[in-house]
């Protein structure tokens, strides 16, 4: 009888141990499309520049503002969408950009871009 109880207890312990185990390699720590990350833009030029962003909600570029030399701008973006960042000299058309970068992140890790001429 003791032997049967011991086997039963060991069997139940094994079932509980293996049944509660999660394989973290197969599971994401975030929900795609709901996770965000910060894009930090740093102006490494000697002039003030205008920043434009094309995102998943629009096919047009949206002006995000001016960025002074040595300054940073932080924009929150959504994981798994593609964005295009453009930098333009102040007063010029956004089609006349000197910097353009396409960004797609597959995880919510923050990203920093240095804007240079």
From TrEMBL:
The keyword Signal applies. It comes from the Bacteria. PROSITE patterns: PROKAR_LIPOPROTEIN. Residues 1-23 form the signal peptide. Keywords: Signal. This is Uncharacterized protein.
């Amino acid at each position: 009888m003791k032997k049967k109880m011991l086997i039963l207890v060991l069997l139940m312990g094994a079932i509980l141990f293996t049944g509660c185990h999660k394989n973290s390699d197969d599971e994401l720590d975030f929900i795609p499309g709901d996770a965000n990350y910060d894009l930090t833009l740093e102006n490494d030029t000697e002039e003030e520049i205008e920043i434009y962003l094309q995102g998943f909600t629009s096919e047009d570029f949206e002006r995000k503002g001016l960025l002074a030399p040595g300054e940073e701008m932080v924009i929150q973006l959504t994981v798994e969408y593609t964005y295009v960042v453009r930098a333009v000299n102040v007063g010029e058309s956004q089609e006349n950009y000197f910097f353009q970068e396409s960004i797609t992140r597959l995880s919510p890790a923050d990203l920093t871009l240095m804007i240079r001429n």
